[in-house]
UniProtKB/TrEMBL annotation:
<feature type="compositionally biased region" description="Basic and acidic residues">
    <location>
        <begin position="304"/>
        <end position="315"/>
    </location>
</feature>
<feature type="region of interest" description="Disordered">
    <location>
        <begin position="1"/>
        <end position="21"/>
    </location>
</feature>
<feature type="region of interest" description="Disordered">
    <location>
        <begin position="304"/>
        <end position="347"/>
    </location>
</feature>
<keyword id="KW-1133">Transmembrane helix</keyword>
<feature type="transmembrane region" description="Helical">
    <location>
        <begin position="124"/>
        <end position="147"/>
    </location>
</feature>
<feature type="transmembrane region" description="Helical">
    <location>
        <begin position="263"/>
        <end position="284"/>
    </location>
</feature>
<keyword id="KW-0472">Membrane</keyword>
<feature type="transmembrane region" description="Helical">
    <location>
        <begin position="35"/>
        <end position="57"/>
    </location>
</feature>
<feature type="transmembrane region" description="Helical">
    <location>
        <begin position="159"/>
        <end position="178"/>
    </location>
</feature>
<keyword id="KW-0812">Transmembrane</keyword>
<protein>
    <recommendedName>
        <fullName>TLC domain-containing protein</fullName>
    </recommendedName>
</protein>
<feature type="transmembrane region" description="Helical">
    <location>
        <begin position="226"/>
        <end position="251"/>
    </location>
</feature>
<feature type="compositionally biased region" description="Polar residues">
    <location>
        <begin position="329"/>
        <end position="343"/>
    </location>
</feature>
<feature type="transmembrane region" description="Helical">
    <location>
        <begin position="190"/>
        <end position="214"/>
    </location>
</feature>
<feature type="transmembrane region" description="Helical">
    <location>
        <begin position="86"/>
        <end position="104"/>
    </location>
</feature>
<feature type="compositionally biased region" description="Polar residues">
    <location>
        <begin position="1"/>
        <end position="15"/>
    </location>
</feature>
Amino acid sequence: MSNFPSTVTLSSPPHNGTAKPHHRVPHFAAIPNEAISFLTPYSGLLLTLWLIILYAIKRYFLEMFLFPRCYKQLYKSMEDSVRRGFLVHHISAGTKVVLLIVGAKPFSDVVFGKSSLHDRYSKYTARPTMGDMLLVLTQLFVALYLFELMIRKSPSPIAVSHHVGAVVIAQAAVALSLQLDKEANATMEYVLCLVWAAFDVLAELWLNVAFILYRIYPKNYALMAYVFGSTGIISIMGTVAETVMVMTLFGQSWDQWDMSFKVVTPILHVLFTIAQIHAARILFHFWMKYKKLLAEEERDLMDPEGRMPKQKDGTKAGTILTEEPILGESSSTTPREASLDVSQNEKPKKLSVVGHINKFFTGRS
């Protein structure tokens, strides 16, 4: 078994015209190639326990307790496929929040800090270690994706490919750590997979929240335009940030990788990126759909010529009803309309920052 240096900076001799300038190696590339956790041989048991817990949450907490009280008729009126998706989005969103909160410390300390997998998670107890926590959360991540595939009625081929790929890669990274004498990059591969998983969880979380709101407020066109528009933009930004971070870390540790990982890792990243772009495309589709619905709703309030919005009393905007008598007429004259061209008399108002944001997301100024 080969061990990597414990320092994160590789320094070369003073530059004399022929020596290479020193370069920085990311911390995770300097972590010793060691077992993730003493729980690694029990990964299958951890996965089984998480699947049981997720099923119990679905059946006994959400279906039998929470949903009948919170959503009432909304949940009962859903078709089976919609109901399954609604359940999955709730379970997935809640689980990802747990992953992000509990995993924040070990992830940041191991990937960007100075901790190794065998360092203590808490300074007060020897157990659990950073590796213990990360392994348990890895199995929760895998269990969640398997659970989604089993519960959803008709997931898309891209969603299936993404989930299956994530499960296989995560479990392969764990399995490699059981053969440290043959796999010199086992620990590095596992930690790099954590970076992928972290961005994947962040990207999918916003999508889950968006579709929960979509099922609750489908007729609130403005809200849905904001939700899907902002979620789509966040998804694209997250994909770009993930690509920059993963490829930067991978490039900085290039000399540490075996040839097989140098070939496979970029290919896997491209596949994950395609799946995330597909998810963003769906979000942008819904955004454009709701912007179109808002435009149609606004046109319904316009007159037949499509120039002026109608008021509640049926008159056109810019029309003033006068009760005062006109010169040369008696005071008993019935009220009449005096039409004013508002667009010619008033200067267009400058939009505020909020107005520009609102116009961008909803198409309305």
